[in-house]
Amino acid sequence: MGFSSSVFLFIFLPMVLFLYYLPINNRTYKNIVLLFASLLFYAWGEPFFVFVMLLSILINYLLALKLDKANGKKRKTLLAICVVFDIGLIFVFKYLGFAVRSLAALFNADWSVQLALPIGISFFTFQIMSYVFDVYYGNAEVQRSYLSLALYISMFPQLIAGPIVRYNQVAEEIRNRKENLSDFSCGFARFTIGLAKKVLLANYIALVADNIFAVTGKNISIATAWLGAVCYGLQIYFDFSGYSDMAIGLGRMFGFHFEENFNYPYTACSGTDFWRRWHISLSGWFRDYVYIPLGGKQGGTKKTVRNLFVVWLLTGLWHGANWTYIVWGLFWFVVLSGEKYLKFPKRSGVLSRIYTLLIVMIGWVIFRSDTLGKAWQYLLTMFGIRASVFSDEMFRYFLGNVKWVLIAGVLACLPLSAWARSIFSSAECSAGLRRLGSVSYSVLIGGLFVLCVLIVVKAGYNPFIYFQF
After folding, report:
1. For labelling, which of 47, 49, 186, 219 has a CA lying 20 to 30 Å from the CA of 331?
2. For residue 444, what are the contacts with CB-CB under 8 A and spacing of at least 6?
3. What is the pLDDT of residues 165-211, one digit of tens each?
4. Directed axis angle between helix 72-90 and helix 49-69, to 10°?
5. To 10 degrees, what angle do helices 372-382 and 222-253 make?
6. pLDDT one-digit tens code per residue, 255-296
7. Residue 319 is among the residues annotated as catalytic for this protein
8. Of 30, 94, 190, 319, which is the active-site residue?
9. Omega prior to 157 cis, within 30 of 0
């Protein structure tokens, strides 16, 4: 069940809101409604794996309780057990088949293991690991209620594709949050913006990206290859940031305030700046729980490079069991290491932004391709080595069909809304103009929601890209 599905919009969400906002002023009741709704949400597509998630929560809950009371080596041992269990769970479901296939290729054997992948396993596992780490480092109090911890991990707004919420960010709101009309209306608006990103932009742009990447290896033009790369870059941004917007908006509707996960990444002026703006919760997770514990920038150049290598190798692996993800992670390791030690200019000039977009697009080609061979062929075409012509009929056909969506997408990548808010909230703005801005915004949100609903009813189900992670 996805946020952009008819079942979610017309049945699941209205029923949950109805039950949640019944005139029962009891926090335990509201938490139980959210917990059971979240379990139903996950079990809708994963009737077996919901028990895997509940078992994972139970094991980590019990180990965290013991860890909180332990001292010295026993404390470290319990943390190690938690980490081994959580990583082992991800490995079995996500990487075991990949590992067996790689070994089979190495030894020329006929081995294979195929296991179904629980949706969002990397997200909810990393979230529960962050809780255990925070308890270990003393950054969060241990949660003594299994139901409260289960709600934190399984909360349906961010369960499947993030953002990865830290426990100490919502611990107080699990116990004592205050729902209000202002939060609800802001949450609905944010949800609508995310829904529009998904159904009005990502889904349409995806048609072009999928068709162009499907002909990798054939004789396509330079322009067609670049159009496919740009379309995929916009697709994955609007798909993933749209999900994050919807998650944040749904959280606000139930009284929770999740951290931002994107900050206009395509306006970045370097690769480092891009990763401060893209998937912020994952970048922060690896920084706080891998990079800094390994020593971070301390210990000289060699150790810093080693730490960056580990982080980006793991980042690539986190995204999937394929060599393309690993190489994509190592590509970013090379880029960010180069920027760091070549002292890349920090000024946000036009050239630095062009450079950033170029390396991001190269990275997305590797990320999107099925195999390293296809990624290499595609990149050679982009840079004119395999292509025989600059433009072709395919390019003109796809561009003619998607040009207005592309223009809308490029504009949506810019901080135009932040610019508008700054104008209407400035001291120079009159009260009448502020009211006009507020009414115009409400009409825009209402119109977007109606348009999205009409498209959702007409179109088939289209899952979010990051469901596979």
Report:
1. 219
2. none
3. 999 889 999 988 889 999 999 999 999 999 999 999 999 999 999 99
4. 170
5. 120
6. 999 999 999 999 999 999 999 999 999 999 999 999 999 888
7. yes
8. 319
9. no
